[in-house]
Amino acid sequence: MSKKQKLIKNLIFLLLIVSPLFAQAQKKQEELDNAPQQLLKSESQEEIPIPQPKTSFFNFQNFNFDENHIFSLDTTYLFSGLRNNGWGLGLSYERLILPFLSVKSDFSHTTLWPTDYDATITIVGLSLNTFYYPFNKGLNFLYVGFGCRTDFLMYSGDDVSSGHTKDTLIRIYPQIGWKQSVYDYVLIDIFYSYRFSVSSTNLPEFITDITNNGSGIGIKLKFNLQKIWRAIFKR
């Protein structure tokens, strides 16, 4: 075998050995080059936890009323009627006109049958109030306000004088309270007010205990009718 043939044979043998090693090294280099991209891809596929904002008593979503108006059923008149051997119904509408300021109107109808008198008392009431919310949390939390209420009273029964079957009572009252929205459908209103009579006649004896002036404190339970309506009919 000549030197030329021997050289060719050695080159072929060398290529057979080196080429697999070169291919393996090239493959490893490609894996190293693609490693950062695969790492980024795997990281992007992982769910990155989103930090939840801290909540407090003043921004917890179940207690915030984020609308600028509310139409509600006021059970105060029902409880007042039941306490005085009767029944009642109250509706109220409140609306923000400025970030801190709202106006509210009320309509109520109450029918009472005093235990100690043979008389039926019917009271139709209209009121207008304005409230200031210092926390600026919508129609929620602490408020101070001023209101004016007119009650139209009508009487019937054996203990009612024939010449005195109706009265009109007008009262004004400053008030302070705390209103809380609970689970979107119910509002609790804890209030204190002081009532002054502006215009009233000599009221019958059987009505004086019900329409007396002075300080008053209580808890109003209100049902958010607009939220209930949406939940039932606009799902």
Structure write-up:
β2 (86-98) and β3 (101-112) form a beta hairpin. It contains four helices and eight strands. An eight-stranded antiparallel β-barrel has the order 1-2-3-4-5-6-7-8. The radius of gyration is 39 Å and the shape is elongated. The protein has helices at 3-45, 76-83, 205-208, 225-233, and strands spanning 69-74, 86-98, 101-112, 120-132, 141-156, 166-182, 186-199, 214-224. It is α+β, with helices and mostly antiparallel strands and 235 residues long. The termini are far apart.
Outline the fold blueprint.
Layout (H helix, E strand, L loop, with lengths): L2 H43 L23 E6 L1 H8 L2 E13 L2 E12 L7 E13 L8 E16 L9 E17 L3 E14 L5 H4 L5 E11 H9 L2
Structural class: alpha+beta
Q: What share of residues are in beta strands? A: 35-45%
The gyration radius over C-alpha positions equals: 39 Å
Element-level helix/strand string:
HEHEEEEEEHEH
Proportion of helical residues: 25-40%
List how many beta strands DSSP finds: 8
Summarize the structure.
The chain is α+β, with helices and mostly antiparallel strands and 235 residues long.
Please name the defining characteristics of this protein.
235 residues, alpha+beta, 8-stranded antiparallel barrel, 4 helices
